[in-house]
Amino acid sequence: MNVKGIHHLSAMTGDVKVNYEFYTETLGMRLVKKTVNQDDTTAYHLFYGDERGNPGTELTFFDFPGIGPAKAGVSSISGTSLRVASDEALRFWEKRFEKLGVKHEAISEFAGRNVIFFEDPEGQQLALVSDENNTGVAAGTAWEQSPVPVAFAIIGLGPVRLTVRKPESTIAVLGLLGFRETSRVPALVEGQEDIVILQVGEGGSGAEVQIEPRNDIPVAQQGKGGVHHVAFRVEDEEEIMAWLDILNQFRLPNSGFVERYYFLSLYFREPNGILFELATDGPGFATDEPFETLGESLALPPFLESRRQAIEANLKPLDTSRK
User: Fold this and answer.
1) What CATH architecture does domain 6-313 belong to?
2) How far is CA 71 from CA 45, 117, 225, 257, in A?
3) 93-121 b/e (C-beta count within 10 Å ≥ 16 → b)
4) Where along the chain do its domains lie?
5) How far apart are CA 29 and CA 106, in angstroms?
6) Distance CA 49, CA 64 (A)
7) Residue 67 in contact with residue 223, Cβ under 8 Å?
8) pTM
9) Dist. CA 54–CA 171, nearest whole Å
10) Where does the record place the VOC domain (predicted)?
11) Which of 181, 40, 187, 35 is nearest to 110 (CA)?
12) Among candidates 185, 239, 176, 237, which has minimal Cα distance to 211?
């Protein structure tokens, strides 16, 4: 009943056009689904990933025009990393970021891997992490039509950093999901406790959560450039329902079973207030679109299709067709 690794991260943007251009043109990820936030259909929900948005490769964004910037703090998903195949790929990205004016740091070592820390146009804290010596959960498959060469392409989600005031509470819930401590690394901020590294399932970058204890900052505020929630991989509906029973046994408030059409979900908050999701590996994003044209038009699950005209009328036009 252990989860298998990271499924996706969902973040927030205040400018969907800038967001789309950065993640597809600068980072070379594929937009695999242009749909809407099913809880607020006035907002886009964009899914970027590998060639078909395989589980473990998806970085998604809710579009909330006019939203204020996120403010860093505890009770937050404070760092998102993206996997590349090698140290050579990091050197490629360092030069690309310099050429394109992307705010970034030099290549460095963190938690046993070479990384580049960088920001997107709205200040989201990101990192590229090398798979040079990585083992465990397999990466995705690079999209051959990306503007980035296949050898250097982003191929999945890497470790996720959670910043919390009471690390033992979050660690306990992750332990319930099957995560185990594998190491500790020195704090990023002087005077704070070590960062606790946890992995689940086969382990490796695609199955790692890093718990950063902080007692010197306030509670984070969500906004553009911030992360809304992290989702972890489970196999199918049977496992979702089994996890629902477990969450109820441990009296963890939750959403109950949620049908998202492209996958099935179950949401709950851990004691430090961070929103977790369990999501199934399927059915996937090619359920209602051909592989060749994923993300080029607005896709709606069947239970929203009858409202298409009204939904489209409330969305700002976003051209995602590929020339």
Assistant:
1) Roll (3.10)
2) 22, 18, 9, 31
3) bbebbeeeebebeebeebbebbbbbbebb
4) 6-313
5) 22
6) 21
7) yes
8) 0.97
9) 27
10) 5-131, 156-281
11) 187
12) 185
Cis peptide upstream of residue 55 (ω within 30 degrees of 0): no
Provide the residue-wise pLDDT of the chain in tens; the chain has 323 residues.
Answer: 789 999 999 999 999 999 999 999 999 999 999 999 999 999 999 999 999 999 999 999 999 998 999 999 999 999 999 999 999 999 999 999 999 999 999 999 999 999 999 999 999 999 999 999 999 999 999 999 999 999 999 999 999 999 999 999 999 999 999 999 999 999 999 999 999 999 999 999 999 999 999 999 999 999 999 999 999 999 999 999 999 999 999 999 999 999 999 999 999 999 999 999 999 999 999 999 999 999 999 999 999 999 999 999 999 999 999 87
**Per-residue tokens: 281:** 């590996």
Q: Which residues contact 250 (CB under 8 A, 6 or more apart)?
A: 176
Write the CA distances from 216 to 51, 80, 164, 212, integer angstroms.
Answer: 41, 21, 11, 12
Q: What is the DSSP string of 145-201?
A: TSSS-GGG---EEEEEEEEES-HHHHHHHHHHTT-EEEEEE--SSTTSPPEEEEE-T
Q: Cα–Cα distances in Å, from 118 out to 105, 265, 316?
A: 6, 30, 28
Q: Which long-range contacts (CB under 8 A, 24 or more apart) does 319-322 make?
A: 320/20, 320/31, 320/34, 320/295, 320/296, 321/296, 321/297, 322/145, 322/296
Q: Which two tokens stand for residue 92?
A: 């490629």
Burial class (CB in 10 A: 0-12, 13-18, 19+), 61: buried
CA separation, residue 112 to residues 100, 127, 130 (Å): 28, 14, 10
| Site of tokens 């399927």 | 282
Q: Which tokens belong to 256?
A: 């109950």
